[in-house]
């Protein structure tokens, strides 16, 4: 959809109403059974009271406020065929401190 969202109305559960409605800044609305919100933590902390209608429950707001900032690194690997045995162990990636010493960014 690639549109900025102004409000997520949620909590309406009935046969006639969707469980949520996502309202975009241009006025267009999208009904949904579920909404996955993937805004940065800073935006969520700053805008949760404006973004959700009705407001989120106090325990959810408290949990959001208690979340801290930090580094998260994700690596996605894609293979034509798996080279590992399914459900037997896991894949671990490791680099030595020397290999990482001069690396300050990761690129795709």
UniProtKB/TrEMBL annotation:
Pfam families: Amino_oxidase
SUPFAM superfamilies assigned: FAD/NAD(P)-binding domain
Signal peptide: none
Molecular function via GO: polyamine oxidase activity
Taxonomy, superkingdom: Eukaryota
Domain Amine oxidase: 3-106
Gene3D superfamilies cross-referenced by the UniProt entry: 3.90.660.10, FAD/NAD(P)-binding domain (3.50.50.60)
Protein name per Swiss-Prot or TrEMBL: Amine oxidase domain-containing protein
């Amino acid at each position: 959809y690639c549109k900025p969202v102004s409000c997520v109305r949620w909590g309406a559960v009935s046969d006639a109403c969707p469980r949520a409605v996502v309202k975009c800044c241009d006025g267009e609305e999208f009904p949904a059974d579920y909404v996955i919100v993937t805004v940065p933590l800073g935006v969520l902390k700053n805008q949760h009271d404006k973004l959700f209608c009705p407001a989120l429950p106090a325990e959810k707001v408290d949990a959001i406020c208690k979340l801290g900032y930090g580094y998260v690194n994700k690596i996605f690997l894609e293979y034509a065929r798996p080279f590992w045995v399914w459900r037997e162990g896991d894949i671990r990636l490791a680099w030595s401190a020397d290999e990482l010493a001069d690396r300050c960014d990761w690129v795709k």
